[in-house]
Amino acid sequence: MKTTTPSGGLRIITALIDFMFYGILIFIFNLIVISIYGFEIMLMTFVAYFETDIPNNLFIDYLVLSSIINLFLGIIYYAVIPYYSKGQTIAKYLLKLTVVNVKGENPSLLKHALRSVILWNNYLTLPVLPFALWRFEVYRNLSSSFLSISAIFIAVSVIMMFNVKDPRGLHDLLLKTHVVLINPTEPKKDWLAEKDTEIV
User: Fold this and answer.
1) 54: Cα separation from own chain's centroid
2) What is the dihedral of CA 132, 148, 33, 71, to 10 degrees?
3) pLDDT digits (tens, 9 = 90+) for 160-176
4) In this structure, are residues 93 and 182 in contact, taking their beta carbons and an 8 Å threshold?
5) pLDDT, the chain, mean
6) Taking a C-beta distance cutoff of 8 angstroms, is the pair 152, 145 a contact?
7) How many angstroms separate the CA atoms of 79 and 71, rounded?
8) Are 63 and 118 a contacting pair, CB within 8 Å?
């Protein structure tokens, strides 16, 4: 029995569920950071920034720290967990999906990290993060540009997932990976052997 390629709709639902879990992690860890600085002073800092559009030192410190934390959590959730759980995030485990390479095997840790389209803006903005400490306006402009680039990649990938013949996103095509439905009644050894002949 052959493995099944999931529909674009199922993949999008999976991505949304994963983003929800990732968002919960971000919320918890950023809440911890805010509590360390102090809720009241951070609230005043945020209000002052949104009113004046000028960040103070505390706001910039929090921005840099939270950006690093968010990227770290993203790599853990979207790369480390799938790598050590044979291609599955929490949502993929719940919906019985997995990521494989062209040989039907679990991709490398690097490929899992690069597949994380949702993190591409973080990857791109990390090199310019020091600008936040030097010239915040430059950082903000570059960050907005990179966010737009990531949004385009995500939009293109979503559209490509609805291709009936090859429902892969742009990130899958670039990294030569596939998302497939796992057949729980079929031994994994047979499934991998079959994927060797199916995936091109």
Assistant:
1) 29
2) -100
3) 888 767 788 888 988 99
4) no
5) 85
6) no
7) 11
8) no
Q: Is the pLDDT of residue 30 over 60?
A: yes
Tokens representing residue 6 in the block: 């999931």
Q: In degrees rounded to 5, what are phi and psi of residue 164?
A: -65, -40
d(CA 178, CA 107): 10
- Predicted local confidence at residue 3, as pLDDT: 57
**Cross-strand bridge partners of residue 180:** 98
What is the reported pTM? 0.82
Which H, E and C letters describe the chain, residue by residue?
CCCECCCHHHHHHHHHHHHHHHHHHHHHHHHHHHHHHCHHHHHHHHHHHHHHCCCCHHHHHHHHHHHHHHHHHHHHHHHHHHHHCCCCCHHHHHCCEEEEECCCCCCCHHHHHHHCHHHHHHHHHHHHCCHHHHCHHHHHHHHHHHHHHHHHHHHHHHHHCCCCCCCCCHHHHHHCEEEEECCCCCCHHHHHHHHHHHCC
103-154 residue pLDDT tens: 889 999 999 999 888 788 788 888 888 888 888 888 889 888 888 888 898 8
Q: Which two tokens stand for residue 46?
A: 């945020």
Q: Is 67 exposed, middle or buried (0-12, 13-18, 19+ CB in 10 A)?
A: middle
Instruction: Give residue 87's Cα distance to chain centre.
Output: 14
